[in-house]
Amino acid sequence: MDLAREGDLREKIKRNVGLGTDAASSEHASKHVACQLVRGIRYMHQRRVIHRDLKAENILVSSSRPAPGDIRCTLYEVKITDFGLSTWLDIVGELLTPCGTPNYLAPEIMKDNYDERIDFWSFGVVLYMMLCGDFPFDQYHHPSDVERILHQSIKKSESWQQVSEVGKDFVCGLLVFDPDQRLAHGSCLRHPWLTGMALEE
């Protein structure tokens, strides 16, 4: 395993209240990380692995560099880590055991079954944090509380108001309660918010 010398993504988010010093820099830096995370999640899922505990603390920063061009921000190269709760997606294609970290759990995780789409919900939580510096819903402390978010909407913080409309659409597409309607690998990479970044990389 490569050494990640720059800590985890949560530390970067805390330092700046998001990934940048203003809305434009946070959004640009977040796109760069988001592209990497989509590809990392796709790599796992193609191999029938579900992470089940994707969170900012489990995304390590291996290196950083200044962004080229006019936007002044730092671009982070990241790696997904801590596969302690990961599992193989079984032949039935669904799982029954609730697990993960509160505040990142998909709402379906406390129901009878779930599948790899829970990782995209967690990705949406991480992305909101990168953009806004906070969780998208009121915090809870026990997995059994996760269904409370079904009665909430995404926090409309001042930072959220400054996110571009296409950026909001991307985040909201990940934080969809119905997993059948949630963005996944292909739809993420084809989304207008990421298409330019995907081509650049």
From TrEMBL:
Pfam families: Pkinase (PF00069). GO terms for molecular function: ATP binding; protein kinase activity. It comes from the Eukaryota. Gene3D superfamilies: Transferase(Phosphotransferase) domain 1. PROSITE patterns: PROTEIN_KINASE_DOM, PROTEIN_KINASE_ST. InterPro entries: Kinase-like_dom_sf (IPR011009), Prot_kinase_dom (IPR000719), Ser/Thr_kinase_AS (IPR008271). Residues 1-194 form the Protein kinase domain. This is Protein kinase domain-containing protein. It comes from Alexandrium catenella.
